[in-house]
Amino acid sequence: MFNLLDSKAGTAVRAFWRGNRAAITPAQLSQTISFARITLIIGLVFLHYQSFPHSGVSPFHGLDIRQHQVATFINSFVLFFFFSVVPLLSMVSGWLYFAFPAEATLLDIGKRIRRRFVSLYVPLIVWNAFFLVLMLLLFSQDPENALLDRLNIHLQTAGLRQYINAIFAITQHPIGFQFWFVRDLFVTILISPLLWLVLRRAPFIGLVFLACVWIGGFNLFIFFRTDVLFFFYLGGLLRLRHAPLEIGRRATLILLSLYVAMVALRTLAPYVVGYHEPMILEIATRGMRPFGVLAAWGLFLWLAPTRFGTVVARFGGLAFFLHAAHFPLLAEIKILLWERVPAETDSWMLAHYAASVVITVGVGIAAGLALSTWAPRVFALMNGGRALIGSRKQLARDSHPTGVRPVPEGQPS
C-alpha cells in the first residue's frame, strides 16, 4: 500500500498532502507531540464536562431539540469534536512504542512492557486508590453529597468486586473513569508481542481486521473499547513503514473543514432521528474520527512551532497528571459553580461550562507544578515517572527518525 506513494499518482497525492512543507525534524516532532498531548487532554476535560445540570439529554446524543438548543449544541459539538482525542493519543503511543530495531526480540518487548507497567498501570492504581479513600471519607461525613452520585461506584451497596474494580479496573471502569483509556492502553501493551508479530508478517490483514473490530464496536472481551487498540496498531504501522508524518496547510484546512461539517451534522442528528440512534449513525460517528485525527495532527504541526505553541508545549509533561487529576475534580467544581448560576439560560449555562473547564485545568496544572516542586518523588509516582524537566530531550530521542533509539525509562506512551 505504501509503495503506491512511489507511483505518479502517489507523487501527486503526496504533493497535495504535504504541500511545500519541509520534512519534520526530530526536535520539531518532539515539540509537536508535547503540544498535542497537553492540548488533547484539555480537550478531554471539555468532553468530560458531559451534560449540563438538570439537562435530560446527554450531549453524546446531540443537542437538546426541546430546550436550550444553543447551549446544548455547543456542548455536544465540542464533545464530538474532541472524539479525536483518544485515537490521536493512541496513534502517538503506538508510533513511539514500536521504535524497535529490525532485529528486536521478545525480550526487548518484554522490557518495554515492564516499563509501561510502571508508567501506566502503577499510577492508575495509585490515583484510583487515592480517589477511593477521599470518597470514602466524604461518604462517612456526608453520605448524601451530590458528588457521590457522579461516581462509578455506589458506596452504600458496593461489594468486594466493585471495590477491586474501583482501583484496578479489571472488568469495569475505575472510580476515576478517565482511566479506562490508561487501562485499555496497558492491555494493548500486554498483547504487543502479538501486534508486533502481525505488524511484521501480515500488517495490512491486521489493519483490516482491527478496523472492522473497531468500526463494529466489538470489545474482544478484554477491552472497554477497541479505539485504543486499533489506533495504537495504526501508529505502529506508520512507524514500521516509515510513513511521512507531514501534512500541509491546504490539506489540513480541507480536513478540518470536512471534520467540522461532520461534527455539526452529528450534533444536529436528533432533529432527524430523535434520540434513537440507529446502528448506521453509531458507525458514522466512529467513522468520522480518522478525519479528526488527521485534521488535529495537521493543525498541531502548524501551531506547535509558533510562539504560542512553544509556550503550550512546555506543559506537555503535565498532560498525564492533568488527565489523572481532572475527575472527580471537574464534577465537584460543576456542582459548586452551578449553585452560583443566577438563571438557567443558554448564556449562563455556557458560562458555567467554560468556567468549570478553565478552573479544573488551572487547578490541575497548578497542583502538578506545585507537587513537582515540593514533593518530586510523589509527583513522579503519580505522573508515571514522567519528568517535567528534560522530557522534551527524552521525547526527541524516542522520535529519532531511524527508529532504533529505545524509549527511556518512564517515558510517556
What are the main properties of this structure?
19 helices, 65% helix, 0% strand, single chain, mainly alpha, disordered C terminus, 413 residues
Q: Could you give a short description of this structure?
A:
With 413 residues, the protein is an all-alpha fold. It has 19 helices and no strands.
In this structure, how is the largest beta sheet organized?
none
Q: What class would the helix/strand composition place it in?
A: mainly alpha
Query: Ends: how far apart?
Result: 27 Å
Q: Tell me what portion of residues adopts beta-strand conformation.
A: under 5%
Mean pLDDT: 90
**Number of structurally distinct domains:** 1
Helix content: 55-70%
Give a count of the beta strands, DSSP E runs of length 2 or more. 0
Please render the helix and strand layout as text.
Layout: H1 8-18, H2 26-47, H3 69-81, H4 85-97, H5 106-141, H6 160-168, H7 180-190, H8 192-201, H9 203-215, H10 227-240, H11 249-267, H12 270-273, H13 279-287, H14 289-303, H15 307-313, H16 319-338, H17 346-374, H18 376-382, H19 391-398
